[in-house]
Amino acid sequence: MATRQRFISFLATAPLALLLLAGCASTPPRLTAAASSASALARQPAPVKSGARTAAEAPELAEEVVLNALSLIGVPYRWGGSHPNEGLDCSGLVQWVYRGAANLQLPRRSDEMMSHGHPVSSDSLRAGDLVFFNTLQRTGSHVGIYIGRGRFVHAPNARGVVRIESLDQIYWASRFDGARRLIPDTSRDALIADRREP
After folding, report:
1. Strands 82-83 and 176-181
2. Which CATH number fits domain 27-196: 3.30.70.20, 3.30.70.360, 1.25.40.10, 3.90.1720.10?
3. What is the dihedral of CA 176, 132, 65, 113, to 10 degrees?
4. pLDDT of 158
5. Mean pLDDT by 10-residue block, N- to C-terminus, for the chain (198 residues)?
6. Residue 76: half-sphere exposure toward Cβ, Cα within 13 Å
7. Catalytic residue positions, numbered
8. Cα 146 to chain center, whole Å?
9. Does residue 44 sit in helix, strand or coil?
10. Is 73 exposed, middle or buried (0-12, 13-18, 19+ CB in 10 A)?
């Protein structure tokens, strides 16, 4: 009886294993404990609509964006990676988080993301804003998600994992390229603050 159940289980998983092998000839990166906890999120299908939820939900939406970004801490960097189970690059991370948390489909490249939302100054940053950096002598060549208190989540490079960094670190401060807000806040205080921005 146990042998029959194992055989049925094997038959059920064999097609999935073949699909995975066909899609990638290399060995997938080993996920860390933090990345494994993110795999529950990764298994859920992400919505792919083009419009964000209503602005009235802005504070909750920003919190959801931040929580989703934090859930990916420890996921290995992979150039061109757009799924936590395979690894993520900087724009793949942002795309994954915003599609899942805000139902917003962003362009694949970080420099193209700079044309979405509206610009905000570095002293007006709010959780969920995108922060851009010039790391390859090209405007907007790197992107992260601001989480508050001068910190952001990003997928740094081929030798790293998704992690939190400070905007005050010399490397990032000297390469800061601007920020964009994708989640409008319709509260009275936020509207007044936005009008004061240059």
Report:
1. unpaired
2. 3.90.1720.10
3. 160
4. 82
5. 43 36 30 38 38 61 95 96 96 97 94 95 95 94 97 93 97 96 67 40
6. 13
7. 90, 142, 154
8. 11
9. coil
10. middle
Task: For 21-47, give one letter per residue: b (16+ CB within 10 A) or e.
Answer: eeeeeeeebebeebbeebeebbeeebe
Amino acid at the residue 147: I
Q: What is the largest CA-CA distance in the chain?
A: 72
Structure-token match 């792919």, residue found: 48
Rounded Cα gap, residues 101 and 50, in angstroms: 13
Q: Which residue has the tokens 């964006």?
A: 65
Two structure tokens written together for 158: 């081929």
Distance CA 31, CA 191 (A): 42
Separation between Cα atoms, residue 25 and residue 61, nearest integer Å? 38
